[in-house]
Specification:
globular, 41% helix
């Protein structure tokens, strides 16, 4: 009887959000924590001070509407560049010397050979793709789970409708349950923006549902084929390791491109891809983009949001780098992860020129081929020492915000013995930790923001909760079937953004949880 009443009381108990709002003093400490480190002579401290608030987005600094306008203006500027690239490729003389004694036709012939080797033949199974959890032209973010996309009416462009028969033939279950039969033909994708830096957002596009499904199939195919040539798009660690080596030995260059995804022009893709592959990708991409209610013809081949853009740009940059190395006679390492490119330092100048001729612009602030600093895939290195900074990207309003910064500060401080160069780092960490209740201490993973990493053990941790969303049973079953039909293949790994869910429950920490590995000197003496 007592147990029954206890369960009923718990069920009716009012939910308490333990991720409470921070007082003003805590917010000031989180925002200004790096100011305490400024003035140190070491490179890592100065670099952290420079980068810490570079991605901080707040209305009082730059309003969201202005950040969005800046992003859209940059998107239009990229389209102007793409239009010039498309026109230039139509007018270029095949005998034009792209490199010394290397004509454009010779360069393209070798590049196409590499593309054919990587892509292989186009077969029907490529159309069997998948869905991500992102929004589409027909489904907003809150209703954009893969299960919802397999259920109900689906958007598709006119050029992609013909591939529905192939999907139904290769996946009989989709024909049995009438998946993708109720369609809505749309002209193309829809532009939206997400926070990126203090002064500008990042543009991406919501694709039609079925186009997205087909695009993901191509992306998965390219990802799998590139792996045969040593390019692993599921792992960034190789690029980070090579960036460290480059900063230490000065033998490798790291190249970063400006708006790489938005400057893949139509003419470049047509020049590099085999005809059948080009025609298929051209059919399943969006040819128009809707920007603030107006529809425009796209000069770029694909934008961020397209299911194969990341893999396609990786393929293009790998092939251009490999072809440039072939004609210049410079052998050595070529590593690609999206627009993060690593090549031999001797190849840097020639590759930058080739990329420029194909419509891509080098970000000189983030590209390095000489000197002690290298940066690639989120790893930053100076003379072989890890100086990777951490960032504050939004106002620190909640308890999880101060935990996240405190954990990142701890990881930064113990990396390469940095705490010994600046003994005050422990005091700065304690200042942040003082705002976290002791029961939420004792974490072991600095990448989490639900428990403070410390030697002292706490009794509880935070657990994020979200509103339960009912998934359509048929859509959930179709998504499960689609996920498992090719489960023998290496899965595609997607980076998850930091959660923005602010509601948290308190839960008791399990017994036997791992201990902290990142110690401050003061904690163990």
């Amino acid at each position: 009887m007592y147990k029954h009443r206890r369960k009923k009381t718990r069920a009716n108990a009012k939910f308490r959000n333990w991720n409470y709002a921070l007082p003003g003093s805590a917010k000031e400490s989180v925002i200004g924590v790096v100011n305490s480190i400024v003035g140190r002579e070491d490179f890592a401290s100065a670099y952290l001070a420079k980068e810490y608030l570079s991605k901080f987005c707040e209305e009082s600094l730059v309003p969201a509407s202005e950040r969005r306008s800046n992003a859209i203006r940059k998107f239009r500027e990229c389209e102007e560049v793409n239009a010039k690239t498309n026109q230039r490729f139509l007018e270029l003389d095949p005998g034009y010397n792209l490199l010394p004694r290397v004509t454009l036709s010779s360069f393209l012939r070798r590049a196409r050979k590499y593309v054919r080797e990587i892509l292989g033949p186009l077969h029907d199974e490529v159309v069997l793709g998948s869905f991500s959890g992102g929004a589409s032209t027909s489904r907003r973010r809150t209703m954009s789970s893969p299960a919802h996309k397999f259920n109900g009416k689906a958007d598709v462009t006119e050029d992609a409708v013909k591939f529905l028969d192939v999907i139904h033939r290769l996946a009989p279950l989709s024909r049995q349950y009438q998946t993708f039969y109720d369609i809505n033909v749309v002209p193309g994708n829809v532009l939206f923006t997400v926070p990126k830096k203090t002064e500008i957002d990042r543009c991406a596009c919501k694709e039609p549902d079925i186009n997205m499904f087909l695009q993901k199939g191509v992306g998965r195919h390219i990802r799998r084929r590139l792996l045969r040539f040593g390019i692993n798009l599921n792992d960034q660690s190789r690029n980070r390791m090579l960036a460290k080596v480059g900063s230490e030995l000065n033998t490798l260059a790291t190249i970063d491109l400006s708006s790489a995804s938005d400057t893949i022009s139509h003419a470049v893709v047509k020049a590099l891809l085999p005809r059948l592959w080009y025609e298929y990708l051209n059919d399943i991409r969006s040819h128009t983009v809707e920007i603030e209610g107006e529809t425009f013809r796209m000069e770029m081949f694909s934008s961020m949001g397209n299911g194969f853009t990341f893999e396609l740009e990786s393929l293009i940059f790998f092939v251009l780098a490999r072809t440039t190395a072939y004609f210049t006679g410079i052998s050595g390492i070529i590593s690609i992860y999206g627009d993060d490119i690593i090549v031999q330092s001797e190849l840097y100048e020639d590759l930058i020129w080739v990329l420029h001729e194909f419509g891509f612009s080098c970000n000189t602030d983030k590209s390095f081929h000489n000197g002690p600093f290298r940066e690639s895939c989120g790893g930053h290195y100076y003379h072989g020492i890890d100086v990777t900074p951490f960032y504050l990207k939004r106002p620190p309003d909640r308890l999880t915000d101060v935990i996240r910064v405190a954990n990142q500060l701890r990881l930064w401080a113990v990396t390469d013995g940095r705490q010994y160069e600046n003994p005050n780092l422990y005091r700065y960490w304690l200042e942040l930790a003082s705002f976290v209740p002791r029961e939420f201490w004792g974490g072991y993973d600095c990448s989490l923001d639900t428990k403070l990493v410390s030697v002292e053990r706490g009794t509880h941790s935070l657990m994020r909760v979200s509103e339960p969303r009912q998934q359509p049973p048929l859509g959930a079953y179709m998504n499960w079937h689609n996920t498992n039909w090719n489960r023998s293949l290496e899965p595609e790994k997607e980076l998850e953004p930091v959660s923005t869910i602010q509601k948290c429950r308190r839960r008791r920490s399990p017994l036997g949880a791992p201990g902290c590995d990142e110690y401050f000197y003061e904690e163990v003496v």
